[in-house]
Amino acid sequence: MGQKNELAHRMAGKTIKLVDALGDPVTGKEIAIKQTNHKFLFGCGIFDVIDVANKNVPAERLAFQEEKLDKFLEVFNAATLPFYWGMFEPEKGKPRTKELKAAAQWLKERNVAVKGHPLCWHTITAPWLLDMSNEEILRAQFARIERDVTDFKGLIDTWDVINEVVIMPIFDKYDNGITRISKDLGRVGIIKEMFAKTREFNPGATLLLNDFNTSINYEILIDGCLNAGIPIDAIGIQSHQHQGYWGREKLEEVLDRFSHYGLPIHFTENTLTSGHLMPVEIEDLNDYQIPEWPSTPEFEERQAKEVEEMYSILFKHPQVEAITTWSFSDDGAWLGAPAGFIRKDNSPKPSYEVLKKLIKGDWYTNVTGKTDDNGKISFEGFLGDYELVCGDKKISFHLDKEAEIVQLVI
Amino acid sequence: MGQKNELAHRMAGKTIKLVDALGDPVTGKEIAIKQTNHKFLFGCGIFDVIDVANKNVPAERLAFQEEKLDKFLEVFNAATLPFYWGMFEPEKGKPRTKELKAAAQWLKERNVAVKGHPLCWHTITAPWLLDMSNEEILRAQFARIERDVTDFKGLIDTWDVINEVVIMPIFDKYDNGITRISKDLGRVGIIKEMFAKTREFNPGATLLLNDFNTSINYEILIDGCLNAGIPIDAIGIQSHQHQGYWGREKLEEVLDRFSHYGLPIHFTENTLTSGHLMPVEIEDLNDYQIPEWPSTPEFEERQAKEVEEMYSILFKHPQVEAITTWSFSDDGAWLGAPAGFIRKDNSPKPSYEVLKKLIKGDWYTNVTGKTDDNGKISFEGFLGDYELVCGDKKISFHLDKEAEIVQLVI
């Protein structure tokens, strides 16, 4: 029972009372209770959806991407879609709203929760901001939030509001509009403004602060934000481990330091590769550019072990509510790294199988049983969506920590 | 005029109209205008005042300390007195209020501004806090602030409210009551509470946040505090340079990063030694303990140059309002370092002479002239207190940036 106890926060016990249309208990019936979705968010960055939903690539490529997405949908229930301003609206006034809406809709229809990433960031931001005064940049950033958050409300209700603020005002690789205004507003100031604006246009949304910096800098920044009354719903932590798996000790130490705010934690951008490690002396991961970064059988085994350990540690931590692996596939992966769960030819790596076994096996509930004389059956399962099957009838229900007894009519 | 322009923020022009008791202009009179004090605070940690004011050391030692203080008073107009809780109230309920009051009074009578250091810190804090619950520790800390800030109001109206908060909750050298409560409250939280309590009992006081950490950590912490509405009056920056002078570039970079909040900056704890440098691999300066750390002629020259450059850079920066050198004398200096302006035998080092020449020479105003037909005389001088001497009469006045004309009656 060790594992069950450690995962008690992910589970609930429930008694179902099955009744017929007249309200009479359905007794002594064989039934099956099958989990159909997790409450926990297991996600990936899955930008291929844009091509697939809009069918705007050649047929062969489309078929390949559809196959990729089938593999994604077999395991995952959450997706991150790109809203990098410079790509979303490369020409001022011509946002790619239609294409992104189609993608978000495609995911929603398949029961996949969607997060938009990000609303404000100094990297890949709109180049045309550089022609503006700081006052105009801030107005444009506000207008961008108002437009996109409004347009996607109902399709996207989770946003990485602002990204990588720790370095934002000191980012000096190239001039950009967002670094400019972050210098004016200060770190906490720009976070405050962006959260307020996002909240204004989607009051019920889940709003994240996101950063790759897991040092004391980010801790102090969060501390300041919360004391300044900024309504952060979840702390986003990036964990691109191209230079090697953090390991249990660092991971637990990070969890420990970022959990004391009492807020949910999302691992928003996780990377564990199945290739050689990036040299540790590289400071900005973007600086490592090599022509070929192969996935090898040996490193695929390592990746599988690391994925298994890391996901298990995070799933056990009561405050973690989401894990997103940044690149679902090696095809199109960031930095060309073999960072996916599947290879460039869509074949699954061991990490894919290991994670599928956890998400759809060890952490998934499937029980059968018989209703008692009062039409009742009790079970314990992982939180999420369920289907009760009784003969040729199916009823959907939700398993949460709330009511212990639920009455279902078949 | 180069220097004058660079120091324009430290100066003011003033026209004095001299009248007699009947209100008639005193015309064609030779007068002297002598600066008697700086507006800028040139301070030292000068804990010997406690012994001298209370005369609680043997006569020989007392004479030596009095001689030391004479040298101090020749140059400086500000003093930091120690309020380390563990030393101020080693036994609960028996604070050294009387001795510290005598010291503050002694300084006040000599026209020296006094700062209390610090009200809350995890180092040298009261050991008896360890027997308390966290709730009791916080109550005791509040009560300590209420008592001491009230007791010293009028004598001490400038406080280092809280010290070294960046490391406070992660300080792990030894258990202590303040680290315990800082973990509960968070960094910004504990700063907020301590500032609110101090402000409550001395609304007009100048309240500082103080830290040795000049990294992005401290920047973000200040940013968070200001966004959380904490009324910080001045940013305190420690600059113990036992491991080598920062140099112009780092100093200007620190000034640049910490000036954009628009707040006054105090260099609260400056050290430039006249001895060999502490090895750079020492992380916590307190870990460097050697039996003898001599002051040498060669290094005294280096110290004098560094003092001259550093004080000049800081005096030129419009937001810096105070520089405190932590150890006035090698006698009793922190870590036994040759950190003073005077040696263990009270003889002045070159740094003393260099600084005296700046503070009481280059940056001090002494002019003579004759009143015109309307009894007026105009001059430009460094901000501060002045004495106008006319024959055998003296009048005190204050030079500030306010009114351009002032009428003095002789």
For this entry, give a set of tags.
homodimer, 410 residues, Immunoglobulin-like, TIM Barrel, 2 domains, 8-stranded parallel beta barrel, 4-stranded antiparallel sheet, glycosidase (chains A, B), GH (chains A, B)
Topology of this protein?
The structure is a homodimer of 410-residue chains.
Chain A: H1 2-6, E1 11-19, E2 30-38, E3 41-45, H2 48-54, H3 59-75, E4 78-82, H4 85-88, H5 97-109, E5 113-117, H6 134-151, E6 158-163, H7 177-185, H8 187-201, E7 206-211, H9 216-227, E8 234-240, H10 247-259, E9 265-271, H11 297-316, E10 320-325, H12 350-362, E11 366-370, E12 376-382, E13 384-390, E14 393-399, E15 405-409
Helix pairs in contact in A: 2-3, 2-5, 6-7, 6-8, 7-8, 10-11, 11-12
